[in-house]
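Notes from the 1:1 (GR / supervisor)

We went over the backlog. Supervisor wanted to see one worked example end to end before approving the batch request, so GR pasted a single chain during the call. The sequence is below; no edits were made to it. Supervisor asked that the structure be written out right there so they could see what the output format looks like.
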Amino acid sequence: MKGIELALVLGGVLLNAIAQLLLKAGTRAIGHFDYSLANLRPIGFALATQPTIVGGLACYAISVVVWIMALSRVEVSVAYPMLSLGYVVNAAFAWWLFGEAVTPLRLLGIGIIIAGVYIVARSGAATA
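Structure output shown during the call:
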């Protein structure tokens, strides 16, 4: 994978991961809410006006554009598995920002993801 291709794939992955973190921050700011018809309007308004929710949705929109650019240059069978790196980024930042648990079993899973992405990336280089 060439430098620009890797940058586009990783840019898409990071934007997607940032979007998830912003959405989580936004839902934490709003707090727990019940799913009911009565809540549709007030919760919908709260979600639509929460800056971190809006920022997360913007990151998603930008990530789609970056991802399309990446897919125009990289085989989808190589690029798509790289989205798994978002799990790694999100686990680290969820631990740091939100105090979420990163257990030894979760760390093992993250290690397996990293190994899998490395193998898939190398397989793309082998066919280029």
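Supervisor's comment: The two ends are 8 Å apart (CA to CA).
Batch request approved.
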